[in-house]
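Q: Hi! First time doing this. I have a protein sequence and I read that you can turn it into a structure. Is that right? Here it is:
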Amino acid sequence: MMDEDMLARWARVLVEYSLRIGAGQMVRIAGTELAAPLIRAVYLEVLRKGAHPFTRVTLDALEEIFFRHASDDQITFISELDRLEVERMDATLSIDGRWNTRALTSVDPKRISRRGEARRPLQQRALQRSAEGALRWCVTQYPSHAEAQEAEMSLEEYRDFVAHACALDREDPVAWWESVAREQARVIARLSGVKTLRIIGPDIDLTVALEGRTWINAAGEYNFPDGEIFTGPIESATDGHVRFTFPVIFRGREVQDVRLVFREGRVVEAEAAKGAELLHAMLDLDAGARTLGEFAFGLNYGIQRHSRNVLFDEKIGGTVHMALGAGYPETGSRNVSGLHWDLICDLRRGGEVLADGTLIYRDGRFV
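A: Yes, that's right. Below is the predicted 3D structure, encoded as structure tokens:
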């Protein structure tokens, strides 16, 4: 367990900085029982702000039970309570923390994809409200043994890793994240107006078109930790190939060494050394699943170690990541899907990025 002072600091940053909670607002706090210490701290902080906390605390095993035993009707059922939450909440905080990150390994990927397709309208409505400024959201990670094992760390090492990545070991974490926002704004200023990016490296030669799209400065408001800038590529104009060398845990299953070929914006070839069945099930989820909804630069140089947790890995300074499926409307993305799957490409050794033909990035840093 993290000490009380750090939990209180974490809760204050999430409530005051990330979600900007004010009096009278409705705030959903969701997480598993493993995250109970942070859930309690956030709950208290929301009350202190005069807001109305609403908790969705679940048992880690319930997701596995659901996918193993739910009927087809239950897999696709969406309750009116779920719809009401999406419409009424002013802010949502999701706190991850699991006993077992691989619990869904033997579940049929088609059942998982059907569930994702059923929830697509909820996801799209949440993204729309977020783009309109009506819904604020944030995702964070509470340290647990399972995530520590995935990262090949002891629990104590992993707690320190999380604290450092979130700047919770700094005297004033809010001031730190505000400085991150200023630095990333300078990078966005360089990229504004760029029509195409070509990413070249040992495992990638990919061109994405960005004309008219907006870069978003992510500095602790959406994810915690954060440290990225992202946009939505033009849907019909991604071409080339990419290999994602970092293994990822997606919906409870490990996928390794994903290789994709894009033509005119769509994945036309796909393979994976492990988890290929899940990869193809997700690509076939719906019409938007084979198109990029997001392209981003990871700029958190306080994270340099791969942990098999995309919340951290996609922020690693010196990487780029791309999400198959749903884009964020505030970027200008028009891609709609029940999928949003972030995959990470390491550019720290031999990677380059050309903006409209001009070199702007080499070996993991802007030049």
